[in-house]
Amino acid sequence: MLFSRLGLCITLSLLTIELGAQQEWPYSPVQRPEIPAVAVEDWAINDVDRFIQARLDSKQLIPTQTADKPTLVRRLYLDLLGLPPSPEEQQSFLDDTSEDAYDNLVNRLLDDPRYGEHWARYWLDLARYADTAGYEGDPDLPYAWRYRDYVIDSLNRDKPYDQFIREQLAGDELVDITGAGELPNPPAENLVALTFLRLAPFTEPRGDESRHEMLSEMTTTVSSVFLGLTVGCAKCHDHKYDPIPTKDFYRMKAFFATVAIPPPLRGDGFQIGGPTTAEFYREGEEEAIERERDRLNEEASEAQQKQAELLADFRTRLQLNPGFGIQAFGRGFGNDYFFDQFTVTDRLPHTTAITADNGTWTFYTDGQLSAEQGSLAGANEGHWYDGLEQPEYVAVGAATNGSGDFQTAAFNGKLAHVMVFDRALTAEQLNQPWNEISKLEGLKFWLDASDLDANPASDNPAVGAPITSWRDKVTGVELKSVDEQRLPIMSTLPGLSTPAVEFDDDFLKGSAKQLSFLTDELGTIVTVFSSRDSDESYIFEVGGQGQFITTFVNPEAGGAGRIESLIANGSSDEISSQERELYLDLANKAKYLDQHLRRLQPRAMTLRHSFGPPYEPGVPTSRVMIRGEWDNPGEVVEPGFLSAITGDQDAADIRLDTFKRWPTRSRRKALADWIASKDNPLTARVLVNRLWYRHFGRGIVETTSDFGNLSGGPSHPKLLDYLADELMEHGWSLKHIHRLICNSSTYRQQSDLENAVAEKVDPENVLLWKFPIRRLGAEVVRDRILSASGRLNPKSFGLPIFPPLPDGIEDRVKYDNSKWATQFGPEGRRRSIYIYQQRTLNMPLLQTFDAPVCDESRPRRRASTTALQALAMYNGPLVSMEVEPFAKRVIQMSDDSSESRVANAVRLALCREPTAQEVQELGDYYQTMDDEFQAMLSIGRILFNTSEFLYLD
Amino acid sequence: MYSRRSLLANTLNGLGLLALTDLLQANEDSSSKPFAPRPQHLPRKAKRCIFLFMQGGVSQMDSFEYKPELNRLHGQRIPGSHDVRGEIQGRISHPHSLIGSPFQFKQYGESKRYVSELFPKIAGHVDKLAFIHGIETDNPNHGPSTLHVTTGSQFPGHASVGSWVTYGLGTENDNMPAYMVIQDPRGAPVNGAHTWGNGFLPAAYQGTLLRNEGTPILNLDSPRGVGSKRQRGELDQLKKLNQRYSDRFPHATDLEARIESYELAYRMQSTAPELVDLSFEPEHIHKLYGLDNPKTAGFGKQCLMARRLAESGVRYTMLIHGVQIGGNSWDHHGDVKGRMVRQSAEVDTPVAALLTDLQQRDMLKDTLVVWASEMGRTPFAPGNIGGTPGRDHNKYGLVMWMAGGNVKAGTTIGGTDDFSLRAAEEPIHIRNVHATLLDLMGLDDELLRYLHAGRYRRLTDIGGEILHDMIDA
């Protein structure tokens, strides 16, 4: 290794860029090499082996013997499917003694739809796939997931790689136009494929600057992914190591110059662009989506009822009394509340009051000082309220999320009666019956009610009509609006036909100035609530600048969401973790329904060529941008291919339609055709090298997205060309290459053989004298845990999933509302490829095992070893959760003996027979514990934490 | 004379060297000990760094830049021509009014430096600080500029400063992560975890979030129902299995490392909670950091925690004050007068306490303390001033200070014009600040690099100029 690298460096020519470098690797044409002769004939199964063997021969090294069948079947499953074999799958291979058992297994696995779900992850890393746009707010890209499905489907169908390239780069330009008619609609599949060009993180469009950066990013990514060249390095200056002048960067960029990004949807102005319609195109996909929609709707409505039942049950068990609350929320306040346990289903009015006197805020419920009745939130000294200097609004029946934006709040008000006084009221005053308090002269006096008789003199007016006075049926109190300019309207309770007086969220806006006591430090707000039944809730709120104080009553929730928080933080022993998760799962089903449904619209985050004049901008002049700066134009360039490959800087031939009706069309097609061509020296080499890298953990060229001078060159140049040639000669079939590799003797070698000589000559095993072990990728680790427990949900395709995250970290990174629709049920246990890729939130388990949420193309992943991995596996929630069903599964498979259980646990977790020593030792350990199930949990946790569980050998 | 850079780039020897370092780097990556202590490139005193990040864009002319001329022209348009680009230029060409600072400035210390009345306690340390004015970033929006200051690039995917420092130096405390992050207890900053991401560096170098609820580090508690005796028993069994597996692959050092990682994790379970348990701190320290005052308790805890981490050998600690944008950040588009008071009151005592405390423990000499925000603010508001004006984003006007280690105390680098609009003379790009920070940690910006996507990446990307005037070495 050392020699080959240094050797290459010494042969490097000077770094001045010479056109005509194309004669040198990697710019030289792919040539099918002669199959080398080897010293020993019977080792090689196919020609791949002969190339490997020839190099080993040259160092007088010998390959290692074939691994045993259990190892091979485990290796093939983990490598091709990213999943361990089930005991049955494993057994059926072990039982198959036919000569072609192995080849058949390889074929079967390549035909298995789980193959695409595993290998798609590698492509998604390259494509910098994510479900959000990154940056401030990290907005959702609701249709990105369709690209993920496109990749899975393409791989499973073994779509020819050249077609795969064309669809992703120029899917909108592939249909030939021969007449002068309309532009043909590109197939939906191609529109989805084009998402590839739009996956880079961008938000907040900034005109020409954004466009420059976007097109530059496309140029960089396309070049590195398909050509394995770091063309992006030439954006600001000539490439420092490779023959790629800056001009070539901008000549390549010019292919993208006529790209048109669909504008963002209304309300999505933060986004760099929007989607267009793209029908569901896979066979049965439309129906599957339809079913998914129905399922989501159904589950959400069922969930609400089940959730209510569960909540009632929890409340009974926890013996929580309903109550009043006075709460401070938002920026300067922290989040704190008083909560007083009262029986409020007594059908009597109750009052809460906030009163301010020279900077000290005091809180009363039913005329009694709340502080004396205790606060759940610890020391409350009224200090949080001093931040509320300039209230911008007063509202009834609405809440904010702390940002100052109103949101619908639970308000089933039967009677909410609010009085505002410009002075501090005394405890004695507050202790009077509410109608006596109302006689005290106040600044404002409002009532909101649903059991009311609007315009008491006549019938209720039509919904939507303004109301000047109303009477509460319960109390008989009649009230009038005090401001003719601000009349409430006749309405109904949300979702019901019950009449209500509706006060707009900002109904009282504008009166805030008169609430100057809030800055003058004197004043009182009294809120009166009736309590007729158990599902009332009221909110009265004063706020501004994203902070607010409220008084409320919420009998059902037990006040201030106390029961909700007890459930959420799992702190109550009365509620089991299963119940807790069931509850949260139900809650999220309704909460995130809209978000899921939105993603199911037939849309894709695609792009197209500009329609050109007279409709849209025509072909722009492309220029070198000096130092890569968006506003620093230099020399004019034409779209053209890399001179390192073509040997010249001529303009590319762009074939327009016959009538030249669409001069902006076909640029990207020209580029795609050039890349997806057998004459391109890099495309096939780069792809087969990527596959090789994924099979062996190391590429023939180590830097898989950089074939330039810093790559160190290929360890087996002829093998690389052989595979590249095979790819192209077999219809650009990836599965053909997989087959060649997996069927080879090289691949079947044992991994744990000691070979002192080889170890010395080639310690890095570059020459592959044994099969190299490697740590599994993060996704495989997670999927393997779920497979072992038997709880992996095998459902393919569709919406992104949201597995549970430890301790609500989704709430800590949220910008506004969390996007993470945690699914505790089976949906959250689908394969890792389906996990929502949120750029500001990487699942800790996956992140710990080196999985990125991609911001840029990631050709390789590291395999680190850290203490945080140990913590995640040993203490983390996933293993803790899955080890229980694992234990049950093992117990079910086994007889009562510890030997049987330990043996089956090893078989299930590690996919191999246990050794006698393991049965002995783990069996002894098992025996030390009194509780057999606990013992089984320990065994499971131990096995899940073994290195062997994390490695492919 | 050839600079090292030109030698590297232009000579065959240089190329050989590059390839060789690449090899070394590759070995380092696959090495099982990403945090083994590594020697500094340069002899510098700082062993650790505490990076204080103020989210939102701190107003420089209301904190550390005294601008009497701005105050004098309050309410008028900005005079003269100003070579600024982008949105600021757009705003200057529209009607606007200068807003003088509503705060009094006083001179402090022997250096007689002016500091706003909002930071009386930090001002008490002014002679220990070195200020950098007129720092420029590439983008005036929170997301990109926050990334720019914390990772050296306005685009996501780059390694954060702490990742680079720990990649360069490893750590001296095996029982704690090398790079810890304590965010505002009220929530995450803009960009979330990108702010302390490892980017293209190996995942081991990402910042570890110190949580303010539950266990200080994620997954630190043993599984429910597993006591320490049972855990030890399980880990002993595990160790046997792992040892046998490792024995089958004697040259796979990562398998050995995995065995060690379980021991380290086990130790971390006991050390980390102790480390963050502030009840070990005496009453007067609690008071010093303002833990007895609800206004300062939040950041006070963060600062005190940072000191404890620093003491225990954590290499790099980033503290974030402020969340996203809005009322709890320094993003004072409106009412700069009212809101600066609030934010500054939250940090002045804690930050001053950190400096005092480090000093009294004789740790300031080998701890680099950095104060930063993502950008500065404009001296004007659009239109006429009415009500409670605020200030907009200004990517030309970031002010930072550093203290400790080889920082030349009491110095001032750069300076802005009479209006704090932009650098008066040469602007100082943030990459120069980064190069300087690395230097102060004993790391050479040109040597601290990582091959990614065809280029040797550096924190400063294209290289920064070291601000030698603020280095005392």
Per-chain topology:
The complex is a heterodimer of chains A (953) and B (473).
Chain A: H1 2-11, H2 47-58, H3 69-81, H4 87-95, H5 101-111, H6 113-126, H7 145-156, H8 161-170, H9 188-193, H10 207-227, H11 246-253, E1 259-260, E2 276-277, H12 285-318, E3 323-330, E4 336-341, E5 350-357, E6 360-365, E7 368-369, E8 393-396, E9 398-400, E10 406-408, E11 416-421, H13 427-430, H14 434-437, E12 444-448, E13 452-454, E14 469-472, E15 478-480, E16 489-492, E17 499-502, H15 517-520, E18 522-529, E19 538-544, E20 547-553, H16 562-568, H17 577-591, H18 593-599, E21 603-604, E22 608-609, E23 622-625, E24 633-637, H19 643-646, H20 667-675, H21 683-696, H22 717-729, H23 734-743, H24 745-748, H25 756-761, E25 774-775, H26 778-789, H27 809-812, H28 844-848, H29 867-874, H30 877-893, H31 898-910, H32 916-927, H33 932-944, H34 947-950, E26 951-952
Antiparallel strand pairs in A: 1-22, 2-21, 3-4, 3-20, 5-6, 5-18, 6-7, 8-19, 9-10, 11-12, 11-18, 13-14, 14-15, 16-17, 19-20, 23-24, 25-26
Helix pairs in contact in A: 3-5, 5-23, 6-7, 8-20, 10-11, 12-17, 21-22, 21-23, 26-30, 30-31, 30-33, 31-32, 31-33, 32-33
Chain B: H1 4-10, H2 12-30, E1 48-54, H3 68-72, H4 86-92, E2 96-98, E3 105-108, E4 113-116, H5 120-123, E5 129-136, H6 142-151, H7 161-169, E6 179-182, E7 208-209, H8 228-248, H9 253-275, H10 283-288, H11 294-311, E8 316-321, H12 336-360, E9 367-373, E10 376-377, E11 380-382, E12 393-394, E13 398-403, E14 412-413, E15 428-429, H13 430-440, E16 450-452, E17 455-457
Parallel strand pairs in B: 1-8, 1-9, 5-14, 5-15, 6-7, 6-8
Antiparallel strand pairs in B: 2-11, 3-4, 5-13, 9-13, 10-12, 16-17
Helix pairs in contact in B: 1-2, 8-9, 11-12
How many E strands of chain A? 26
- The domain tally of chain B reads 2
Give the CA-based shape of chain A: globular
Tally of contiguous helical segments of chain B: 13
Mean pLDDT of chain B: 88
Strand percent estimate of chain A: 5-15%
Binned strand content of chain B = 5-15%
